[in-house]
Every structure is written in C-alpha cells, then in structure tokens.
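Inputs:
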Amino acid sequence: MARVRESAIVDAPIDEVWRWVRDFNSHRDWHPAIADSEIENGLPADTVGAVRAFTLTDGGFLREQLLSLDDEAHELSYCLLDSPLPLHDYVATIRLMPVTDSGATFWQWESEFSPPPDRARELMDLVGNGIYRAGMRSLEQHLRTGPGAGGVLRVARASDGPPRPARTEQTPDMEKAAPIATSGTGGIVKARAVVMDRHGGPDVLSLREIDVPPPGPGEVRIRQSHIGVNFIDVYSRTGYFDLVTPPGIPGMEAAGTVESVGPGVGHLAPGDRVAYACGPAGSYMSVRTMNADLVVKTPDWLDAAHAAAGMLKGVAAGFLLHDVHPVRRGEWVVVHAAAGGVGTLLTQWASALGARVIATVSDLDKARLAEASGAHEVVIGRGQEFIERVRQLTGGGADVVYDAIGRDSFDASIAALAIRGHLVSFGQASGDIRAREIGPMASKSLTLSRPNYGHYIADRAMMTMQAERLFAALEQGLLTIPSPQIAPIEDVVRIHHALESGKSTGAIVLETASS
Amino acid sequence: MTRVYVSSVIPAPAANVWRRVRDFNGLPEWTPFVAESRIEQGLPSDKVGCIRNFTLTDGGKIREQLLALSDYDMSCTYSILESPMGVENYVAKLSITPVTDGNVTFAQWQADFDCPPEREQALIDQIGRSVFQAAFDALRQSFGGR
C-alpha cells in the first residue's frame, strides 16, 4: 500500500478555500490537470455518492466518487472508479484547518492506493506533485487572481486586499469627468430632479431644479450621470408601495461619481466611481445626497450606464439565487418573465450555476431573448401548456419557481412545483396577488418566500457582500448586463408609460448629462 | 464544554519543531511563561501518565498529566490536575503537522474544558492568547520567524 500526503498553507480564509474544495465539480475551474468535469446523473455536486467524470488536459478520462463530505470538519474523501493509471484501491482525503493567527488555511491532501511495485515511485510522485501540490498551488493562485474568484473571496479581501488588476486599460469617460464642484463638503448644489407632486400615472412626474444640501455625517453627495429605471419606481409613483410621500422624488438606483463626503465617511472619497441600488427613494436627480453605507465603488471595467442598469436587478438576482433559494447544480428552475430585467439575469446566472432553467415569456421575440440567456427550455405563456411542459421535462415538477408576475401566474407556479418545491414570489407585474389559500400548498409541502429587497441590503456589510458577489459574477462571465436603452432624463414620462405597458424589454437608464 | 483552538505556521521542518516541544518537562525551554518544571516521582518525561509540576513566571503553580504521546502523529495530549485558573475537565492537545510545500510546520493547540459561564470569555482569551498563542509566537521566533 502506497501512501501519499501533501500539504500547503494557502493564503486565504478557510471558508473561501472550502467553498471551492467542497464543490466536487469545481476542479475544471482551478486544477491544471482537469480540462472538464461533469457530475453523472445530474446530481448536486455535494451529494455523497455522486460520481464525477473528469476529462484530463492530456485527453485521459477518469471517474471518481464522493465518499464523505463534512462541512463541519472541512473534510472530504473520494475514491477512483476508473482511471488510465493503475492506482488500485485509491482513496483520498482532503482536510482543511484554519491558521488562526494569520487567517490562512492549512490544506492536507492524502491518499492510499496499491500501485504495481515497479511503478510505485513514479505514481506516488505523479499523485503527490502532479495532482496534489500542483492543485493546491493552482487554487491559491486562482483565489488570488483568477477570473473565477468568487463573491465570498472578493468581499473578504475588498477592504484591505491588494488592488486587483483592471480588466481594461482604458477607463470609461465617466471616470475622467469626476467633477469636484465644491470645496470640501460645503455649499448647496443645484440639481435637476424628477418630482412627483401626487401619486398617480406617469404624468404626475415633472422635471425641476432643486437645491441639494451638502452631505451630513455618514453621507456622500453623488453627481449621478445615470439613473436606473425599475418597476418598483412605478409602484412608488402610483402609491402601491409606500416609498415616496408626495411631493417627492422616486428612484432607487443610480451611478456616478462622489462629489463630496460628509464627516465620518472613510470608505469613499471625492472622485470615486460609485453606484447604489436601494432606498430611500430619490435617485431621479442629477446630484444627490445619500447614506454612504449603501453606496459601493464600481469596478473600473463597469461603466456608469451599465452599473445604473444592472445594480438593482443584479443584486436582486444574486440574493434570489443564493440567499432566498440557493440554487444547486442540476435543479429545475422556472423563471417567469425571463426576458425582463431581473428575469434575464436570473436565467443567465441560474444556468451558469448549473441549474436547468425553464423560462416563460409572453411572445416569440422575448422567447429568443430567453433562449440567448441560456434557458434550457422556453415556454410562451403560463397556462396549462406550461404546467404540462414542466411536468414532462422534470418528471415531478420544478424545484423552484421565481415569479415576479404575481396575480396571473401564482396558481400556475404552484402547479408547476415538485414536492417540497419552493415558490419565490418577488413581484406582481400583473397585479396584487391578494389573499390566497395556503391549504393547497400542503398537498406538495411547498415553501413560499416573499422576499423584500431591503432586507437583503440592510447595512453596509450586506450591501457590500451583494454588490461584490454581483461584480465577481459579472467579471467571471456568469451573467452580463444587457446594454440598456439610454434616454435623457427629460423623457421620464414617456419611459414610465413604456415600462408600465409591458412593451419594453431590457433595462432602461436615464441620462442626466450632468457629468 | 468550552473549546479553545489556536494554530500557527512555524518556519522549520516538523521534525525539528517536534523535537523541541515533545519533552513534557520542557516548557521552560520554549515558552515565555513557565519559570521551572519537574516531573513528579522522577519519572521519564515521555512516560504516559507522568505528571509535570511547573511554576509560572507570575508564581502560579500547575500540575498536568500526560495522557497520550505519539511520535508518529507528533501530538501530545494532557489534562490539568490542579491550577489557579478555575477550569474543570481540562484536556488539551498539541499537534505538529508537516507542511510539505515549503517544508515548514503547521502547529495546533486545542483545549476543551468546563468553567462557570461568566468566566468563559476571559478563560478563552487567557488560554488562547496568553498561553497557546504566546507559546507559538516564541516558538516561531526561536526558529527565526517573525
């Protein structure tokens, strides 16, 4: 019996390392010897007993089975089922331990196997150096610089880590603009703002010039070049959500440049390119004072128009897929309105996570969009045909339904779910869902979530985590923010009409020309 | 049951680090807080079951019994028989593990014990920081580390 044991100190917190190591299907992302990997039978990668099929970079092929997985001890073991090499009875164990005084991770990777005696030395060297050492070094490298650096990592290092290389050499124009209009925090600044005098239709919106006070303690004043338009703005305009008390300014999302910072703000400075996507409402203006805790710096490679178009929808997609219902590889996921703002991102991101997305849309053009986002199947309409198609594809029903349609889709969503399925109802584009019987949910042991955006970005830690997760996923290519339709802020009434009529696809951004 | 866990990387091969720490009577040689130590009844310090009786630099006296010693795993387990700390059922394990990439050492020290709830945090700090971490810091420096 040969025994190989290799170990290394990886300069990253144990949770980051474990997040990759525990994913039995992740080696293709970081191990130099693995070209491709697939979990057989579509099982989640953390199913004990799951078999992964590896294609090696040298063209070889092998299969390994997960024997144990222990999140508490940060330990897993696996064995070889088929291999091009005579590694008989091969069982390997990976164990992580924290280095408490430095925040790094001790990683031990060991195995036992029975090689032919004349090849023992060669095979032990191959396993120890070629697989274990090379793999450990490579994951460390991957965590530090790789395009696959995940959200958790980026958050953990965002505060004090070394600056990451920018993706592009050229910085967007917005950055150069960075006008610092006033000295220090003093002075009132004039801004153009979209004001609503009462609740009602799009015509209650009008453009005015208003005074913006200097930032107070914990606040920043932002020169906003681009403003994101979201359906929630319609709800605050009509009064469906109690977000804006007239006379007031709607809007939850914008991007631009920090103009000045108030006392006690340490993480932002004048000239920083920033964005936010949260309450309190009031983003429809060219200059705004805002709670600095909820404002995040945007990466160099993300221009302000895309940041304003994608922050709110991207953060929403992020917490819906990770926090409300953590989507796992192989799950059947229904996304309603899959060509809509959040729907497009949900479809892309869930597909990239390895889920099989059944997208619903209302017409053929939108079906093409949903297909381009990576949907496994696209269904036009949400009637009986949809329910039958879901049953046909999945056998037992969908694991989760993401539903922002509301009233018109609620019953179909319930019908499409599998036993112990999860309905995530996060919008009501078709109207208020109103009172519903919960009795029928018992027949399938369903779970219903009705998440509120604000509760997932309630403070700086949460906001930063959500934003960094989104930026990392964008950089990794798990999703892309579609280029928004850009309209001058003067066109806000027309834009609200279009949004409400359901005719628009993709994101809309108002441009203030203030930068 | 309360647990304290401290770990560190010592910039020396594991065999060298183990040679330094395996002597159950050797605390004065490598920790900054033990003034003198003896093994009761003149037993060898690697006889499992032996008791070390040592005096801290602050004058406190502690008796600890060796429960397990492994040169194969490079680990040592012991319990406290008497101490001024006010802990019960205290069992600690010190283990040394090679880091093959770089030929250095991963050192771990863990203790489990019972104590009154109001003293728990103070004891975790005292044992974790002033004992285990302080000993690891001294060990690291003795091997040329920071």
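DSSP finds 14 helices and 22 strands in chain A. Flag for discussion at group meeting.
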